Amino acid sequence: MSTSILYHLFGIVGYDYVSTNYCEDKVEFKVRHRSSKLCCSQCGSHEVTLRGTKERRFRTGRVVRKNVFIVLDVQRLECNVCRAIRQAEIRFADPRVSYTKAFERSVLDLLEMATIDDVARHVGISWDVVKEIQKRHLQKRYAKPSLKGLRRIAIDEIAVSKGHRYLTVVMDLATGAAVFVGDGKGADALDPFWMRLRNAKHKIEAVATDMSAAYISAVRNNLPKAKLVLDHFHVVKSLNEKLSDIRRDLYRKAQEDEKKVLKGTRWLLLKNPENLDETRNEKARLEEALSINKPLAIAYYLKEDLRSIWSAKTKRIAGKNLTAWINKAKASKIRQLVTFAKTLRTHRKAILAYYDFPISTGPLEGMNNKIKTMKRQAYGFRDIEFFKLRILAIHEAKHVLVG
Ligand SMILES: [Zn+2]
Fold first, then answer.
1. Residue among 68, 6, 63 at smallest CA distance from 34
2. Do 61 and 91 belong together in one domain?
3. What spacing in Å lies between the alpha carbon of 371 and ligand 1's midpoint?
4. Does pTM surpass 0.85?
5. Same domain? 161 vs 310
6. Among 47, 80, 107, where does a domain finish?
7. Number of domains the chain contains
């Protein structure tokens, strides 16, 4: 057995081969420290006295259905310079783990195409050890993403563990990468991010957020020079909620025959008119509901009208459309629409900022779908730090693997 095989297969270099032990399901290669390489792990001095050994076993892979181990009598050394007794340095494994660096690399390779569960079964170690290997790798690579060159970002919350717990994600809109994941959905979730931004001497020019008061004030306070752009999908979604609310109110008060007409129209009201299904008579059903109910008709047409705020040719026209919309909503005297008009007036600047920076939190929504796939497996986020690291790495994951 040549030492070069140990080197080429398992990255073991600077050790002498001693013997091989074949068992039913494993192969063990015994190696020993090369005496010329023995030195103090702290100061590097070769002035050392041998002080006994302790046998350790390092898993290093699987070859033709057999687990391969490296067995080493780890030398204890007394350094004549430091005057301390320590273990000799082990170069093929990280401290305190019982597998080689080569093994770690092969596990990471396998994780590119299989789940943690699959990999654990294949290499014959526990789920937790595979997870720890991945976690340490993610920590080294993704724990502190570079904020250099960051210009346009989106901020949004994601729900973990069925909505009881939230994380705030910041995305670089140029690369699609998450650059920060904070705890909770309040303004303080972002505090560590602002600190890192200041240290990085950032040049953020625009931020897309939803209508969360916490995010809005956090952005205004910490990035006073950046343009805040209110995400238009969130605005539309919020009006849709009002529309459903109005329909619910009307339904409660309606007579029996009107109830029949209103029944099942909620989705029709929220659909874009071009998506109404003719074969299912959706257009006619919607028109009937609107014709018997004036407030519902007003709310519905205002919902359709809202889109004109983001589809105008210029910012000036968009501003006019917005003013007109607010006036119509106020004139409707429908409680939910009047409130919504006030909200839009408050956010006027941030809504129209879309014409300076046409950005949205839409890309983050896409990332959220990937995160949901990741989340379906409960294991992944029992360890919230691990879960956050996986979000920071998600843009590079070829497949979103779970388990
Ligand atoms: Zn020393």
1. 6
2. yes
3. 48
4. no
5. no
6. 107
7. 3
CA of 11 to the centre of ligand 1 (A): 26
Cα-to-centroid distance, 248 and ligand 1 (Å): 78
Q: Of the candidates 107, 125, 144, which is a domain's last residue?
A: 107
Instruction: Compute, in angstroms, the gap from residue 40 CA to the centroid of ligand 1.
Output: 5
Domain residue limits at 43: 3-107
Residue 257 banded pLDDT, cuts 50, 70, 90: confident
End-to-end CA distance of the chain: 39
Distances (CA, A) of 230 to 39, 151, 154, 188: 61, 16, 10, 20
Q: Say how many C-beta atoms besides its own lie within 10 A of residue 104's C-beta.
A: 20
Question: Residue 290 in contact with residue 297, Cβ under 8 Å?
Answer: yes
Per-residue DSSP letter, 401: -
Q: What is the pLDDT of residues 8-60, one digit of tens each?
A: 888 888 899 999 999 888 999 999 998 888 888 888 888 999 999 999 999 99
Per-residue pLDDT tens for 330-376?
Answer: 988 899 999 999 999 999 999 999 999 999 999 998 888 888 877 76
Whole-number Å distance, alpha carbon 42 to ligand 1 midpoint, is 5
- Considering the domain architecture, whether residues 334 and 238 belong to the same structural domain is answered as yes
Do 241 and 311 belong together in one domain? Answer: yes
Q: How many Å lie between the centroid of ligand 1 and the Cα of residue 210?
A: 58
Ligand 1 centroid to Cα of residue 83, in Å, is 7
